[in-house]
Design a protein that fits this description.
BirA Bifunctional Protein, domain 2, 3-stranded antiparallel beta sheet, 9 helices, 326 residues, 8-stranded mixed beta sheet, alpha+beta
């Protein structure tokens, strides 16, 4: 008989399990008070995401059967519910993203996602602020709220304007940090900016504050609307606390044609990088065409928030079973 594995024990203590359960109960109470309905969507889906920076895990239910995917976010399915008339909704679920492992990443993690009909980006930021404060409790009791534009953050921490700085300068800074871009053209520029946010700007945000980084470049809109009042920017925000990105939100794009164009742009970049080809999610596009109501939505990393609430330094410290021992 082989030796039993030494890592059979869950890494989370009973006290941590209790704290996690308490935060989940608080979250549900928060949304119940606001009349936001809890929903449940499939973890196993027919379509992967086209985003070049996210890899969907492939699942086959039987040998040589159709390939399915584990969802990286419940976003597409939740938008189909919204288009069908669900009203305001939230969901707490496990998601899986390939090739993500670090101090702040585990391939499988818990995501809290919600959508509010008729909300602007600013209104949703206010609600995210209220929930984060309720869940973080004493960890941020005296923290002010800061709203910092993407442009202002780069000027403050890297002394450059991300909208006008030339690619050579961005490349030089990224290389000094040990990074290089795999993109070309506009995709190269965006990848360099994203590297600089993750390696240099982001870790400096939210130090003693809850910092909302907003108005990203239009080329990084993903599923967000563009801002007609600030050309070249998207109605997208992220929340940072103590250098940790907690949430990513959008005033949601409702145009099926524009979303299809962005998906095809992603697919072309995937081809250029020789990444696996991904078909667009036609069901999501059909829902948008049928009529997604005007709304704003956000995804919040629940494990990261728990990490900050209990004073842990690594996401692994708040998971019962990190992927390596699952």
């Amino acid at each position: 008989m082989s030796e039993p594995p030494q890592n059979w024990r869950p890494s989370a203590s009973r006290e941590l399990l209790r704290q996690r359960a308490a935060l989940l109960a608080q979250t549900r109470a928060f949304f119940a008070q606001r009349g936001v309905l809890e929903v449940d969507t499939p973890m196993l889906v027919n379509a992967a995401v086209t985003d070049v920076h996210i890899e969907s895990a492939v699942v086959q239910l039987a040998p040589r059967s159709q390939a399915y995917f584990l969802h990286t976010s419940p976003e597409y399915a939740m938008k189909r519910l919204l288009a069908a008339g669900s009203g305001d909704i939230f969901q707490i679920c496990h998601v899986v993203r390939g090739a993500e492992r670090s101090r702040l990443h585990n391939p499988e993690f818990t995501l809290l996602e919600w959508y509010r009909l008729g909300f602007s980006m600013e209104q949703l930021m206010d609600e995210v602020d209220a929930l984060a404060r309720a869940l973080l409790g004493g960890a941020c009791v005296d923290y002010p709220t800061e709203h910092l534009s993407y442009r202002e953050a780069f000027r403050r921490h890297l002394d450059l304007d991300p909208f006008t700085a030339d690619v050579a300068r961005l490349e030089h800074i990224a290389q000094a940090l040990g990074y290089r871009s795999a993109g070309a053209g506009d995709a190269r520029r965006d990848e360099l900016l994203e590297l600089l946010v993750s390696a240099s700007v982001g870790p400096r945000l939210g130090r003693g504050t809850l910092t909302f980084l907003h108005h990203y470049p239009a080329s990084q809109a993903a599923l967000a609307q563009l801002d007609a009042q600030q050309p070249g920017t998207a109605l997208r925000f992220e929340l940072y606390c103590e250098g940790v990105e907690l949430a990513n939100g959008f005033q949601e794009l409702t145009s099926a044609a524009e979303q299809h164009r962005r998906f095809e742009q992603d697919r072309e970049e995937r081809r250029r990088r020789r990444l696996p080809a991904i078909e667009v999610d036609e069901r999501l596009l059909a829902a948008l065409a049928a009529g997604l109501p005007a709304c704003a939505g956000v995804a919040l990393g629940f494990d990261r928030l728990l990490m900050l609430a209990v004073g842990a330094r690594e996401i692994e410290a708040v998971l019962s079973f990190p992927t390596e021992s699952a």
